[in-house]
Amino acid sequence: MSLLAGSVAQTPQVTVDLIAEPTPIEPGQAVTLGLRFRPVPGWHIYWKNPGDSGLPPSVTWKLPPGWTAGELLFPFPEKILAPPLISYGYEQETVLLVQLTPPSGQALPSKISITAEVDWLVCKEACLPGSASLQLTLPASPKPNIDLKKLFDEIRRELPLSVSDISVTATESKNILTLTLSPAPSVGQLSFFPDRSDYVDEFQPAQTEPSGNRSILRIPLKKKAPLPATISGLLVSEKPWVATGQRALEISVPLNATQALRSLGEGGSASPISLTLLFAFLGGLILNVMPCVFPILSLKALHLVQISNESPAAARREGLAYTLGVFLSLLSLAGLLIFLRASGQALGWGFQLQSPPVVWLLLALLFALSLNLLGVFEFQVFLSNFASKSPLQGWTGAFSSGLLAVAVASPCTAPFMGVALAAAFALPPIGTLLIFSSLALGFALPVLLLSLFPALLSFLPKPGSWMNSFKKILSLPMLAAVLWLVWVAFRLSGSSAAPTISLGLLLLGLGLFLFGKSQRSFPPPPALRWSGLALVLLAALIPASTLKTGSTELTSRHSDRLPWSEEEVSRQLQSGRTVFIDFTAAWCLTCQVNERVTLSHPDVQAAFREKNIAFLVADWTRRDPTITAALQKYGREGVPTYVLLRPDGSAPQLLPEIITPSIVLEALSH
Q: What is the pTM of this model?
């Protein structure tokens, strides 16, 4: 429900208004505003971590020039139990505070107009989204208002605080999270609210126990739920922590060193870091036979067969250069992810393919590779240079092959990778880099072994004219990948992207044709070569600079599947249905193979109908922080991810990344 402008918005479920603390407004000095929510009895809104379902309120500000807005400040919530689900939110009146700061050094008008575009979700048995445009005119010198000032003071006492002289440590053992506070505060019983994920089992009581000069809070955990490397959230007490009356203590503490280097095993159980590294290594190794990578690996292996007969040392150099390219590419990707997530962005594996310009550049690269394999032109930078005898060109070509292999592997997820990547994002940065290094080692190993041990090359066919025919055969899966990425681009940008993509492919094809024609001429005509390169540059830049993420809602072609949302999950579970969630994306090749081979299999579809299972699709093609958060809740950082939720409140069941009809049917039969 969307409401027009005004300082108050009212629906049958909740009243929302924009209020300001009655204090004078001075240049450069922050003024406090509040978004007040008053739910009708029985309804509730959500905290910043909504728990098992829900969405917190959000706001977009329209401010006068030079004004800035801080983040929404949430008072401590209450626990709203609706077995088997738990939510964190507010059933009573609450106010979310925000500080607005006017520019300093300039006079302010007597009245200032502020607009807040507010979105919220209010729930009872059903959940209803709402939005409103709230306008408020602030007088620079407001009249005193004792009641309004008292309200803001009360809300401030419900905001979390930090107490520097209280030390908090966190450990986990036997599915119990233990928080130890020292020295022991005299605040009575404690309750913990995690600020992300939902690993706490709220249906078992937490216990606060004194232990000498310490207080210990023992918190039951959900079975097989992943724990973050840092425990953060609120400790809410019976009595105030300080004399000013605040009852919510904000904490952010790492798990002890042993726990920080633990992560998920299959199904979510804790496993040593060595097992996680093994999963990463095996995932990288299996990635080589995925359809996005296999053509490049095949060409590289055949190139090593050719040069090893002439110079085994050159083969070893190229193998090491290829490995270096793989390591550099994957570790750079890991570093970028660490940086972006530290800045507060919700990202996971394959995040770069949620960008239309990146998808176009990958599409153009694969189209160029297809034309190269068909003999339209030769380029000696990527893949292997079969004709060149230059050691430098061979080394740089192998290094670039490693970079290219990682680029085209990004749409794929291999078995074991989901577990390893979930652990990588839960660990500190050093753990993330360690896991990505193990993934890189597994990915580069086949080429590295073939280059270091020439005897292995004897199992491959001898070089000959057949290799040119084989290259043309390998162009077919490349062209298929191009068509698939065109579909991905349409899903990302909408059908309006068709003219731009068509123009880009036309310019690229014509440019590479002219460049190839110049290569076959002697001496090469400079005008022909440079005109070809100019068209290639235009083909790369025009779509990359104009393609944008579409605004239309993505739809499923299956009428019996529902779009995923936390509210829909809650609604289906409360109605007694088992829920199957398909976390997928158009750019995820593994997802598309699973869809066609398994999820569209007649026996699997019949099982979903017979057992009345709700099939929900969480489409992550475009960047969606709510889907990213849901993946993290289930201990995953990428797609495909398949989750079975049952209405009896049992732990979520995660299926492997690559599924078969028998795997799905067996899971549905339980």
A: 0.50
